[in-house]
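Collaborator request log, item 7. Partner lab (contact: R.S.) asked for a structural prediction of GTPase IMAP family member 5-like to inform their binding assays.
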Amino acid sequence: MSTSETTVVVHNPPRRRRRSKEQPPLMRIVLLGSSVSENSLVGNFILGRAAFDSEAPPDVVERVGGRLKDRDVMIINSPQLLQTNISDHQITHTVRECVHLSDPGPHVILLLLKHEPCSAEDQERVEKVLLSFSEQVYQHTMVLTTQETTETSDVLQNIIQKCANRHFSLQRSSSPDDLLQMFEDIVKMNDGRHMVCAEASQYYFIIFIFIYSSFTYNYCINKFR
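Returned to partner:
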């Protein structure tokens, strides 16, 4: 498989009975990381089942649905976007796939980072990926770490601060309900609105220009025929 391409795998959740008016709508979560095994661990933790394969190729973007308490959730898992060797073309292509699979937009961006020493270049790469989604990305983003430590690097702390200090440390005693509550807080802070993604905006702008150009061309042809 070419490293410049991204494979999309969609797992449709099983059919459930019709949702009542009191039940909250589907929550769409984009999980970003640099490790297939860690992304799978977190995705499976949220859904409470082995939904993601820890040995899947890193350039596969998966969408899996499930239910957590009284909330239907959809996780879009991209374990390659934060890798150090990813190209600008791969970033653009993979972000586009994540946006497509989370249409009309994600409610939460879950950023899976490590405590190990990070450089300013690492922070720039993370911020570049995030801003590829939207200028409002930090309003919807939280950081999750899986390593137990008593210290947090300055770079990691800077990123956490940009995410309004939203940070969840996944421990043995952690519960999916605790993480869900943080997701709910993000949704509530944004008044239930999903993130408007830059890739989606560009797509609709291009469609608009195409339609407008076609209309103008046909109008001129008919007028001067």
